[in-house]
Specification:
Order of helices and strands: EEEHEEHEHHHEHEEE
Number of strands: 10
GO molecular function, one term: ATP hydrolysis activity
Shape: globular
InterPro entries: AAA+_ATPase, ABC_transporter-like_ATP-bd, ABC_transporter-like_CS, ABC_transpr_LolD-like, MacB-like_ATP-bd, P-loop_NTPase
Number of helices: 6
Structural class: alpha/beta
CATH architecture: 3-Layer(aba) Sandwich
Pfam families: ABC_tran
CATH topology: Rossmann fold
Bound molecules: adenosine-5'-diphosphate, magnesium ion
GO cellular component, one term: plasma membrane
CATH class: Alpha Beta
Domain ABC transporter: 7-230
Largest sheet: 6 strands, mixed
Helix content: 25-40%
Strand content: 25-35%
Length: 230
């Protein structure tokens, strides 16, 4: 077996304690996402979408199966190594942007470099370039309270790209937005996926977003199947 450079889940099963038994959240799920491509995941509430992202993010270890990230076997790593892999290789975008109220947009991004042990000051040019790429060049010095919901989500996405992740995991980023703004965010994610070369997984409840994806899959009761896009 050759490790793939993007994200590669093979036969992943994940269960949670459930009363006296176990609930199967992911049932032998296999999903390979090559670099520079976007895979959309749809499925009803409770079907395992967030669990799939948690496994791909190495935040949750599956009961069985393999998780390969940028060619590394994530399940075999020690917890500290896994945390390092997460910081260096994985970008995560949740539904709620969780920006820091006291920081400007550019500082939200610079702080990522600081957390990774680098210099926030040196990271400023890259932070400004990323804000430009998400359409917020003129908002760099604004604090979150002056931004719209869609603009906050764009800052959130730019922040996740600061460390040039190989794998970008996005959970319902348009949940709090109207349809038009949601569609613009998904189109932006598709474009950033191509330009950054990240292997992107996007969980969405809105099937009208599927044409932006290179591939679409559906989860039902923890089982994954491929959908036709476009
Ligand atoms: P989705 O994101 O598609 O709504 P989830 O991955 O959040 O689905 O949940 C899948 C199933 O696993 C659901 O039945 C949910 O209740 C259950 N579940 C999720 N997280 C936990 C947990 N930490 N402990 C126990 N059950 C959980
Ligand atoms: Mg969810």
């Amino acid at each position: 077996m050759h490790p793939s450079p993007g994200l590669d889940l093979a036969d992943v099963t994940l269960t949670y304690p459930d009363g006296d038994g176990r609930l199967t959240a992911l049932d032998r799920v296999s999903l390979a996402v090559p670099p520079g491509t976007l895979t959309a995941v749809v499925g009803p509430s409770g079907s395992g979408k967030s669990s799939l992202l948690a496994v791909a993010a190495t935040l949750t270890t599956p009961d069985a199966g393999r998780v390969s990230i940028a060619g590394l076997d994530a399940v075999a790593l020690r917890p500290a190594e896994r945390a390092g892999l997460r910081r260096s290789t994985i970008g995560i975008v949740f539904q709620q942007p969780n920006l820091l109220a006291s920081l400007t947009c550019v500082e939200q991004l610079q702080v990522m470099a600081h957390l990774a042990g680098g210099s926030a000051r040196k990271a400023r040019p890259r932070a400004l370039e990323l804000l430009d790429r998400v359409g917020l060049a003129d908002r760099a010095e604004h604090r979150p309270h002056r931004l719209s919901g869609g603009q906050r989500q764009r800052v959130n996405i730019a922040r996740a790209l600061m460390h040039e992740p190989s794998v970008l995991l996005v959970d319902e980023p348009t949940g709090a937005l109207d349809h038009e703004r949601g569609a613009a965010i998904v189109a932006l994610l598709a474009e950033l996926t191509r330009t950054s070369g990240a292997a992107t997984v996007l969980v969405t409840h809105d099937r009208s977003h599927l044409p932006h994806a290179d591939r679409a899959v559906e989860l039902i009761d923890g089982r994954l199947r491929t959908l036709a896009t476009a």
